[in-house]
Every structure is written in C-alpha cells, then in structure tokens.
C-alpha cells in the first residue's frame, strides 16, 4: 500500500432487486468516492444490506450496473467483487478468519490459498510483510499470534489488515462498532481515517448516529428499498437523518409514557458477585424505570444475571415486593417475580429453532396446563394476545423465531414474560441490533409495563436511551454503582464522565 | 410444480419409501403381505422400538445415551435370574430390572448433568461398566431353566408361564408385545406433544441456556430424560427375556445401533429434522420390514447391514439437505 491511488469512484446505477416478487430495492443509485467515509443508514429492512450484498457479489442484481474505473460490472460472485477491489468486513468476524492460524496467515489467507500462490512458504518473509501491514494501521500485534487468542476488535483489525494487503479500493464495514467498547471503536475510527488517507472509499453501516456524524463525510439514507437522501455531513443534522429514516422526528418517535410511581418493589443491598458486581445497592419503585448505564465491561450484564439467579451471588440481599427473593436459580427468580430479557437475544432470550407459539408459552407452561397436559387453546390464545398486543410481525404463531427480524425476536423475548405477572423486569441492552421502528415499539412496551406498576431496570450503554426513558439513572463503573441522577439532571457528558472515571468518585 | 414437489418429498418421502419397499417385497414374495408376516414384523421390532423411544428421549434433550444396549443386556439377565435363581413372583421380576434401569439412567445423569462430562464420553464409560456388571453377575453364562450352578447344584426356578406370555402371547389375535409397543409409542407421543414435561424436554434440548433463563429447571429435566432412557432400555430387556425364554448374555449389544438407526431414520419422517416419536416408530418399522423381506428373499444375513446402512444414509441425506436449505 505504498502507492497512492488516484481518486477513484464507484457508482451503483439503477439497481433493482426483488425476492419472490417482493421488491427489496427500487432503482437505487449510490455513489462512493475514493478517500471518503460514506455512511449508509436505514432501519432494518430498508434495503441497505441487500444493496451491499449486491455490491460484494453475494447477490446478483436484477437490473442496473456497478461502474468502476475499470468498467461496468454486474457481479456474480464475491470473487468477482474482490477482483474489482471491493471488500467487505462482515459483522461476524469469526466466519472470515481461521482461528487456529497465525495473524500473518490470516492476513495473507487469500494469497496463500490461491492456486496462483507460491509453492514454498517463506515464514520469515511472510511475518515481515504482515508486520508491515499491521504497522500501517498502527496495530501492535505479533504477526505470529494465533487468531483465536485475539479479542473481537483485534480480529476486526486483522480483517482490515487483510484487505489492505489485497489492495482494496472500496471497503464495506457492516456494523463494525456494534460489539465494540468505546475505546475499541475509537481505535477503529483512527484506522478508518487511515484508510481514507490512503485513498480508499469506505462504506460505513451503523445504527449509532453520533459516531456516524463524528467520522463520516457523506451520509446516504435508505427507506423501503429506495435511496431517500444523500448529503454532506455538514448539510444535515441528526434529527434530519432520523426523520429521513423513519419519516418521523426523534421526539415523536420516543415519547415517555407517564406512570404513577409507588412503593419500592425491588431493593438490593450489598450485592457482590465475583469481581464484576461489587457492593451494588439498588431500589426500584412500582412504575419506575431505573436505567443502569455504563461502558461495555462495567458489569451491567453480570448484575442482571445475578439478579435473575443465572449466576450465583457471593453476598447481599434482594427483596421483591417486600419478600426475600430466591436467587439460587432462574426458576427461583421467576417465582420470586423477576423477569430478564437478556442481551444475547438469539442465544439466551429465545429459542430460534422453536415456533413463536412455543417461545411465548415457555415460562407459563405450568399455568396453561392441567395435570401436566397443556391446553392448546390457552396456549394459542396467550400467543395471539401477545402478538397483537406487542405488534409482533410473524406470518403465523407456528413460524420459527429464527425467521423473525431482530426487533420482532426481541418482542417475543419480552412477550414470553408478560403472562408470568412478574413484578420486576430486567432489560439488558434490549435495543441492541434492533432497527429504529422496533426500538420505539420496545420503548412503548417498557413504558406500558411501568404504567401497570411494574419495576423496570434498564441496563444499557446507550446513554441517549437512558436519558430519554428513565426516571432515574444509575452509573455503573467497574462493577459498582458510582452515581445516581434523577430525570433531567444529567447530560450525556455527565454520564460518560462518571462511567469512565467512576473510581475517583467512589474514593 | 417443482416448488411443490420438493417439500412433498421431504415431508412424505420416508413414508412413500416404506410403502414402496413393502410393495416391492409383496410382489417378490406372496407370503410377505400376510397378516401373520406383518404382525411378525411388528413383533420383531417391538423390543428395538422400546429402546429407541429411550434414545429419542435422550436425544430430545440434546443428549446421547450409549449405554442403552448394555442396559438391555443387564435387564435381560436380571429378569431371567429373578425367576431361575431366586424364584421371585412376577411383580418383583418386572420391577427389579426397571429400578436397575432407572439407576443406570441416574448414574448417567449424575456424570453428565452434575459432573458435566460430555454425554458421549460419560455414557460410553457407563456402557462398559454396565456391560461388565452383567457379565460378572452371571459369571459369563446365559441364564436358562434349571441351569447348572457353579457349585454343582441345579438352579431351582424356571421362567414362569405368565412371564413368557408377555413376550410370546397374543391378545385378540395380536401379539402382546406389539400391543405394548403401540401403547408405548402413543403414550410417548402424547407426552411430547401435549404435556408440560414433554415440552420442557424439547425446549431444553433446543437451547439449554435459553430454557434455563426462561425459568425451566433444566438439570432436573435432563436428569429425568436419562432416567426415562434407562427405564425404556430395561423394558426392552424384559421383553427380550420373555421373547427368548432365557437370559442371553450380551443380548442388548446390537440394540444400541439398531435403535439409534431407527431414531435417525425417524428424523426424515414428516420432515421433522429432529428426534420425534412417530418418526422413531416408522424408522423401526422400515428396518423391520427390510430385515424381514430380505430374509424371505434369502439374502444373506450379513448383507442386511449394508442395506440398513444405505437406508440410514439416504434418510440422513434427505433430512440434512432439507435442513440446510431451510437455513439458507
């Protein structure tokens, strides 16, 4: 990558794509210049991933062409696209890496595996070349390290090193920051700037608007399979982007429902569990939404799991509605009146190979059965009630949850608890990987639960959500609650300050 | 047309295949499609079906029980010795092997659920242990009426008539083991389809952590599944003793593979793609039909396994092509 590219340009012209007769993309034009970072935004289902799959050769386009300096193309396979200099870093980094090989081998994987490659491997030279590429993106990592020992963000960077080694001209980063902590994301942004300086055109997909505005030069918004807007960053603000994505404004989108705040329903005293939960005190009243915010790794997920009995507590007392809670197991916690909507939705929240019907009835099998025999009628009535009440979009109750969108899966993960009459709901990052439309539905569901007098604990690293939704915000840092704010008292900067430097506040 | 044909093959292919096989044998041999022969086939698969129901249960909770074959062996000789050595009444003769089968299941559960040894390894070890126990118990001899004992005396008891009727008798012209088998199949199917505990097992097998975080007591569910597997294997052993009229050593050794094959063929029935009782039953039927028909055609006994294996490959191929397409 020592040569400097002349300014190149990528044009997707008049792209249309339909699946089984349903149009996913309608005459989309999309332009990326070399040396710019171009954000591609849109709610889930807006067509951005379809567009990117056409660009990366995973799908064939029905109509339209992709124009590069080297000519016009309609890619038929990912290899075509790579040959034209277009590379994609998918969110699931592990699928693109060979975990038991070294960093060097992974960086040069395509060349090593190619039939045109050299017959003999010169290990010293390979590692040297890998080192050079790593230096270029400022990654201090031994080229001999095994990929399986790397963190997720390092794996991502290895993939970026790979596309540098392959002299990519255009790069698609598909939600790269979703699993990263703030520091890791900062590191990624630096590298993206480096790519930009090297004349590479970067297409950046993200759900997080603040980082989009921080890093990107141009923004394209898609909605319902059409491109609705392409603007220089300076010419538009966040609410304008949200409006373009939804057709509605931010305030209209996330209104807080008023709820009557009553007696304490959850109180936690001196809860300790390992090193990730240290001396947590917590009180939640009926109808109150308490947000627990903190950076990734602050111990929020661990706290929620301990409160739900999924992991053991070392010491501390937890009281639900005046009675001591049994947190020896999740089933005990459920009986005590706690429900958890876990962060890892597809692994822990729902069973993806089971139907919507069976997922929704899972926690209430006892109450819909008599002498052990399930009442099919009661089960279906419950499921239909939740589907209508929560607006779950499913073709039928027997649809497998694997085929629902992220937002609808989350609604199933929430809906299964609504029949249990739990007093306290723990939400762990419920909007992660969920599009804005479903996000507002989820906020409305949470608001309604509060109105019914439930206590809500909302654990999140999205400060804006906490500020918009919560009656009280607790800041967590290194396993301890370091600060409490009432509604309207805090700004994002305050929260970030305490979340990242909480230890001084403790001392 | 093709759009409808492919799902149809996946859903009903296995049943159509069974029908074709039956048709084939019926044309080749006039005695094949007779009442006597068909009930004979069902009687021949009744024991394997019981064991296969147990295997289905352990597979449903995403486990695997390799010890079922040796449990059948142990149960067979236990049943026989209860009568031949100890002259116990029928009720004791039936209860003791079932309790022992449940104990083997509990041991499996202890190793897998509590100590967290991977299921294949734990049940492999238990398979050896139980195998050793059943041979040590009988000192390597098969058990039969008034057998000579090591001390030179003769065993006091014989296999009782009532007991032998279980495996050899008929009720309304239907072999009694066939009736038992059908009852067990229906009961197990109802259990998985309509009861809370069956659903809990299916959900636990689907994703243990998600089931646990939904408030299920997954350890208890998995323990019960292994106990059930042990009990069904021991019932298979009792039926075996009653069918043969003696306690053969190593009687259950071929049962493991036969029952597992039946269960996996069952994955393809109605395109279930997962362990299911109805599928298991039809899997056992298919295997029974093949063995019976091939024997009638005088195909050598040892060639049967090649055909059984090929059928299993076919069923698995259909199942997994379908599952992978559905994922895509």
Describe the structure in brief.
The complex is a heterodimer of chains A (507) and B (328). Chain A is of the alpha/beta class and 507 residues long.
Overview of the molecule:
The complex is a heterodimer of chains A (507) and B (328). The two termini of chain A are 49 Å apart. Chain A is of the alpha/beta class. Chain A contains 19 helices and 22 strands. In chain A, the strands form five sheets. In chain A, strands 6-7-8-3-9-10 form a six-stranded mixed beta sheet, with helices on both faces. By secondary structure, chain B is mostly helical. Chain B has one domain: Orthogonal Bundle (ABC transporter involved in vitamin B12 uptake, BtuC), CATH 1.10.3470. The longest helix of chain B is centred in the N-terminal third of the chain and has 27 residues, at 2-28. Chain B contains 13 helices and two strands, in the order H-H-H-H-H-H-E-E-H-H-H-H-H-H-H. Chain B has helices at 2-28, 35-60, 68-84, 90-114, 119-138, 161-168, 176-194, 196-206, 208-212, 218-244, 255-267, 277-296, 301-327, and strands at 170-171, 174-175. In chain B, helix 3 packs parallel to helix 5 (119-138), helix 6 crosses helix 10 (218-244) and helix 7 (176-194) crosses helix 8 (196-206). Chain B has a two-stranded antiparallel sheet with strand order 1-2. Chains A and B meet through helix 12, helix 13 and strand 18 of A and helix 8 and helix 9 of B.
Fold blueprint:
The complex is a heterodimer of chains A (507) and B (328).
Chain A: E1 9-19, E2 22-33, E3 37-41, H1 48-55, E4 63-68, E5 71-73, H2 78-83, E6 86-89, H3 103-107, H4 109-113, H5 123-136, H6 152-165, E7 170-174, H7 182-197, E8 201-205, H8 209-215, E9 218-223, E10 226-232, H9 238-246, H10 250-253, E11 264-273, E12 277-285, E13 289-293, H11 300-307, E14 315-320, E15 323-324, H12 330-336, E16 338-341, H13 345-349, H14 356-361, E17 369-370, E18 373-374, H15 376-390, H16 406-415, E19 424-428, H17 436-451, E20 455-460, H18 463-469, E21 472-477, E22 480-486, H19 492-506
Parallel strand pairs in A: 3-8, 3-9, 6-7, 7-8, 13-20, 13-21, 16-19, 19-20
Antiparallel strand pairs in A: 1-2, 1-4, 4-5, 9-10, 11-12, 11-14, 14-15, 17-18, 21-22
Chain B: H1 2-28, H2 35-60, H3 68-84, H4 90-114, H5 119-138, H6 161-168, E1 170-171, E2 174-175, H7 176-194, H8 196-206, H9 208-212, H10 218-244, H11 255-267, H12 277-296, H13 301-327
Helix pairs in contact in B: 1-12, 2-7, 2-10, 2-11, 2-12, 3-4, 3-5, 3-10, 4-5, 4-10, 6-10, 7-8, 8-10, 11-12, 11-13, 12-13
């Amino acid at each position: 990558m020592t040569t400097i590219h002349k300014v190149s340009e990528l044009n997707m012209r008049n792209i249309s794509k339909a699946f089984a007769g349903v149009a996913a993309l309608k005459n989309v034009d999309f332009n990326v210049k070399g040396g710019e970072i171009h954000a591609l935004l849109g709610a889930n289902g807006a067509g951005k991933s379809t567009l990117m799959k056409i660009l990366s050769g995973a799908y064939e386009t029905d109509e339209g062409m992709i124009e590069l300096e080297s000519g016009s193309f309609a890619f038929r396979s990912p290899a075509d696209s790579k040959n034209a200099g277009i590379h994609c870093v998918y969110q699931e980094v592990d699928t693109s890496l060979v975990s038991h090989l070294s960093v060097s081998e992974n960086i040069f994987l395509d060349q090593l595996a190619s039939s045109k490659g050299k017959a003999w491997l010169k290990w010293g030279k390979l590692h040297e070349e890998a080192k050079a590429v790593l230096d270029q993106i400022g990654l201090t990592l031994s080229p001999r390290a095994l990929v399986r020992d790397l963190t997720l963000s390092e794996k991502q960077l290895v993939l970026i090193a790979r596309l540098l080694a392959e002299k990519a001209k255009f790069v698609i980063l598909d939600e790269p920051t979703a699993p990263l902590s703030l520091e890791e994301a900062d590191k990624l942004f630096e590298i993206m700037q480096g790519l930009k300086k090297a004349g590479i055109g970067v297409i950046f997909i993200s759900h997080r608007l603040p980082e989009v505005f921080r890093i990107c030069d141009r923004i394209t918004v898609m909605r319902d399979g059409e491109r609705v807007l392409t603007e220089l960053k300076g010419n538009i603000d966040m609410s304008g982007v949200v409006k373009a994505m939804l057709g509605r404004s931010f305030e209209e989108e996330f209104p807080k429902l008023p709820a009557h705040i009553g007696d304490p329903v959850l109180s936690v005293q001196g809860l300790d569990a390992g090193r990730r939960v240290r001396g947590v005190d917590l009180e939640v009243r009926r109808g109150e939404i308490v947000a627990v915010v903190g950076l990734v790794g602050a111990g929020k997920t661990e706290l929620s799991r301990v409160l739900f009995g999924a992991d053991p507590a070392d010491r501390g007392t937890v009281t639900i509605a005046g009675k001591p809670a049994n947190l020896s197991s999740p089933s005990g916690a459920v009986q005590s009146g706690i429900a958890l909507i876990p962060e890892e939705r597809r692994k822990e929240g729902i069973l993806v190979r089971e139907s919507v019907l069976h997922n929704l009835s899972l926690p209430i099998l006892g109450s819909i059965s008599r002498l052990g025999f399930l009442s099919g009628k009661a089960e279906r009535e419950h499921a239909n009630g939740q589907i209508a009440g929560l607006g779950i979009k499913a073709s039928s109750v027997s649809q497998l949850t694997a085929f629902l969108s992220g937002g609808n899966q989350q609604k199933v993960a929430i809906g299964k608890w609504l029949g249990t009459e739990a007093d306290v709901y723990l939400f762990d990052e419920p909007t992660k990987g969920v599009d804005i439309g479903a996000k507002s539905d989820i906020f409305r569901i949470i608001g309604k639960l509060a109105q019914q007098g439930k206590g809500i604990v909302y654990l999140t690293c999205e400060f804006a959500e906490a500020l918009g939704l919560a009656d009280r915000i607790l800041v967590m840092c290194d396993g301890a609650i370091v600060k409490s704010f009432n509604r309207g008292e805090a700004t994002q900067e305050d929260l970030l300050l305490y979340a990242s430097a909480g230890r001084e506040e403790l001392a | 047309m093709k759009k409808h044909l492919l799902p149809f093959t996946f859903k009903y292919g296995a049943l159509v295949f069974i029908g074709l096989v039956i048709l084939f044998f019926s044309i080749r041999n006039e005695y094949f499609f007779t009442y006597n022969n068909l009930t004979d086939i069902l009687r021949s698969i009744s024991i394997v079906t019981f064991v296969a129901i147990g295997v289905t249960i352990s597979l449903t909770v995403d486990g695997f029980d390799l010890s079922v074959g040796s449990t059948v062996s142990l149960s067979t000789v236990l049943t026989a010795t209860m009568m031949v050595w100890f002259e116990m009444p029928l009720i004791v003769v039936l209860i003791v092997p079932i309790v022992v089968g449940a104990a083997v299941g509990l041991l499996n559960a202890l190793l897998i659920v509590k100590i967290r040894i991977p299921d294949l390894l734990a049940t492999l070890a238990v398979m050896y242990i139980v195998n050793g126990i059943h041979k040590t118990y009988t000192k390597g001899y098969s058990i039969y009426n008034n057998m000579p004992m090591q001390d030179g005396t003769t065993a006091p008891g014989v296999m009782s008539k009532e007991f032998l009727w279980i495996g050899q008798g008929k009720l309304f012209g239907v072999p009694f083991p066939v009736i038992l088998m059908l009852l067990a199949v229906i009961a197990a199917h109802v259990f998985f389809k309509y009861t809370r505990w069956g659903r809990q097992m299916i959900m636990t097998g689907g994703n243990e952590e998600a089931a646990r975080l939904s408030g299920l007591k997954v350890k208890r569910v998995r323990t019960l599944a292994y106990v059930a597997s042990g009990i069904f294997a021991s019932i298979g052993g009792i039926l075996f003793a009653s069918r043969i009229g003696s306690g053969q050593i190593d009687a259950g050794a071929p049962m493991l593979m036969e029952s597992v094959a039946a269960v996996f063929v069952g994955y393809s029935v109605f395109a279930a793609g997962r362990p299911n009782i109805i599928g298991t039953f039809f899997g056992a039927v298919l295997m029974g039909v093949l063995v019976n028909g091939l024997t009638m055609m005088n195909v050598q006994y040892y060639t049967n396994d090649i055909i059984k294996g090929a059928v299993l490959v076919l069923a698995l191929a259909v199942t997994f092509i379908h599952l992978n397409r559905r994922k895509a």
